[in-house]
User: What shape does this take?
Amino acid sequence: MAAHVVTAQNRFAGDASKGRDVFLRYCSGCHGEDGRGEAKTFRPNVGNLAIKQLMDELSDEYLFVVIQKGGAAVGKNAAMPAWNAQLGDDEIRDVVAFVRTLSRH
Ligand code: HEC
Assistant: This one.
């Protein structure tokens, strides 16, 4: 009987440098390269992902869900799209790790 192996890997050990590539490709159009939403290229009301006090209140689980399932899934603006079609779980973890770096200046 094959053992069901549960790895001891941290669920949220994302790779921020990989996440940066994902962010620049899929997210910066709305959020700006620095996450401050000042690019205003598409939507003005994206919120600022670089404010530490705000980001500290958001858990990694929450960030994962809002990225995977979109704003509407967490009662936020549906203008924040769901990314489950474009991004696998690992890529979402990477981008969460990168988003965390935006407020750590
Ligand atoms: C089409 C524009 C658009 C794109 C592209 C986009 N977002 Fe958003 N995002 C939004 C908007 C609008 C909000 C604000 C939702 C709200 O506060 O109601 C938001 C909010 C967020 C939030 C904060 C949620 C909160 O509760 O404060 C995070 C984190 C986020 N986006 C991450 C990402 C990531 C990561 C990507 C790329 C994979 C991405 N977004 C791509 C429009 C976008």
